[in-house]
């Protein structure tokens, strides 16, 4: 409550005639710390509820950009390759920093009702947790602050900022809600950015980065490597579903296993287990991608390898697309998912898969180029001879007329852009 008052979050007023109020509640949480770096903390948070019933509020522009996990890994790759310093900040009461553009009235919170003004309500001046506008309003204010301090927003990743110093070095900042990573060659440059941020926002300096989004970051500066680990999270998942005794295998799902919708996860535990593994797959374990994708779908530097498994889905006969990008031998982006349409041949499935991979390749190339990194993307490795020959021959003929024009033309254009 002290923080809420300090940020001038609301005014206590009488409810205007014809206006409705939003309810609120307290949410209590124990935030796990990082061994040797941060102790566990108990947190209380006041959140709004019933936002979907707010009359007269336009929700068409409430969504805030969310950083891709591949962007986090890409930044960590730059840090490792150039031996940059990497430190972390946390914004206290992050969503209270956003200014609201609508009149929203909220009931007084439990335990803090003002005596003799029990019928009064709060007119919110700042965004509050659980309001749909909150993430967007916070991002707008943060973006305005960063650009006013000569940082540029990356055109390919809205949550990555960079600044070129007078000596030619760069400072990078990555934002994920209330977490920030700052990287630079000189600790003094990082300290300067921290001071600027602390003047504008209430910050907590977490020092050298040890953990972000539940992913532990281990660093070996002698070998210029960073290691990402979700060991703690995985152990919690194993305990939650009582499978601590499960035996490890080298291949999580052999190629001869074919799954149909009759084998879909049905119980809450089965669905929860697949969902829990999806977060591991996205963050740090590309080796789980195929297996998790297979079970999940039955419910309803440089690019290196792309592949498609023709008509893999028994129920809808859609093909599976998979790709992985590596830089300095380390995977930074990967995907294994069913294609959105049904391919009528292996060649068509491969074309569709190459299209998805090339889009990611162009995105990665753009992201790195703006961060002053020259990412050479010259070769796409694919094991389909028909797809390779058709890429070299841009003429339509009888054998390829069935391939959707948008895929063929798009692949040709993408390959030309990459080769440029």
Automatic annotation (TrEMBL):
Lineage, opening ranks: Eukaryota, Viridiplantae, Streptophyta, Embryophyta, Tracheophyta
Ranges where the Reverse transcriptase Ty1/copia-type domain occurs: 7-252
Pfam families membership: RVT_2
Protein name: Reverse transcriptase Ty1/copia-type domain-containing protein
CDD domains documented for this protein: RNase_HI_RT_Ty1 (cd09272)
């Amino acid at each position: 409550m002290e923080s809420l008052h300090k940020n001038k979050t609301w005014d206590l007023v009488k409810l205007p005639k014809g206006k409705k109020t939003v309810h609120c509640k307290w949410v209590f949480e124990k935030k796990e710390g990082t061994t040797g770096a941060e102790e566990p903390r108990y947190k209380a948070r006041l959140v709004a509820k019933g936002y979907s019933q707010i009359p007269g509020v336009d929700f068409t522009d409430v969504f805030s950009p969310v950083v891709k996990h591949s962007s986090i890994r890409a930044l960590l790759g730059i840090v490792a390759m150039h031996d940059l310093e990497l430190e972390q900040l946390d914004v206290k009461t992050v969503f209270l920093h956003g200014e609201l553009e609508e009149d929203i009235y909220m009931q007084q919170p439990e335990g803090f009702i003002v005596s003799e003004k029990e019928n009064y309500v709060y007119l919110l001046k700042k965004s509050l947790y659980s309001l749909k506008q909150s993430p967007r309003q916070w991002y707008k204010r943060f973006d305005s602050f960063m650009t006013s301090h000569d940082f540029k927003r990356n055109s390919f990743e809205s949550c990555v900022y960079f600044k070129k110093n007078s000596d030619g070095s760069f400072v990078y900042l990555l934002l994920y809600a209330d977490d920030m990573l700052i990287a630079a060659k000189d600790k003094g440059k990082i300290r300067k950015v921290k001071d600027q941020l602390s003047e504008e926002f209430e910050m907590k300096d977490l020092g050298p980065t040890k953990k972000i989004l539940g992913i532990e970051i281990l660093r070996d500066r002698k070998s210029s490597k960073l290691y990402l680990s979700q060991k703690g999270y995985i152990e919690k998942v194993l305990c939650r579903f009582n499978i601590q005794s499960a035996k490890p295998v080298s291949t999580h799902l052999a190629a001869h296993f074919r799954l149909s919708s009759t084998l879909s996860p049905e119980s809450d535990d089965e669905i929860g287990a697949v969902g829990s593994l999806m977060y591991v797959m996205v963050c740090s374990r590309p080796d789980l991608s195929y297996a998790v994708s297979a079970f999940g779908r039955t419910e309803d530097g440089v690019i290196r390898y792309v592949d498609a498994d023709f008509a893999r889905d028994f129920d809808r006969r859609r093909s599976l697309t998979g790709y992985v990008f590596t830089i300095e031998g380390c995977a930074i982006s990967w995907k294994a998912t069913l294609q959105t349409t049904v391919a009528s041949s292996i060649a068509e499935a491969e074309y569709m898969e190459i299209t998805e991979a090339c889009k990611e390749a162009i995105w990665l190339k753009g992201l790195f180029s703006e961060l002053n990194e020259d990412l050479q993307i010259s070769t796409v490795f694919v094991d389909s001879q028909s797809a390779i020959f058709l890429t070299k021959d841009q003429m339509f003929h009888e054998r390829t007329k069935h391939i959707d024009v948008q895929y063929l033309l798009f692949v040709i254009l993408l390959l030309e852009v990459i080769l440029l």
